[in-house]
Amino acid sequence: MAYGKYVLAVSYHCLTKNKRIDMTKTDMKKLKMYINNIYESSGEDGVTKMVSQMYSDYIELAKIATNNEYQAGWTHKELIEYLKN
Hints:
Number of domains: 1
Number of helices: 3
Low-confidence stretches: 1-5
Oligomer: single chain
């Protein structure tokens, strides 16, 4: 299953915490099915690993996008502002 945009959406939501993600009902259904499949096959550990991997991927992309100037304490909003400038 190609789930890149769904993982990105979940990652964005997890990292920004209070932001709403506009996804279609179909997108949400696919995301829910994907997460449920991980949970059913690997339990909480599988979901935890998935979120951990998404976070690691986000950090890696942030470092690449900022030429390694990204700081671990930056919020998502701070990263976006840095990238806009």
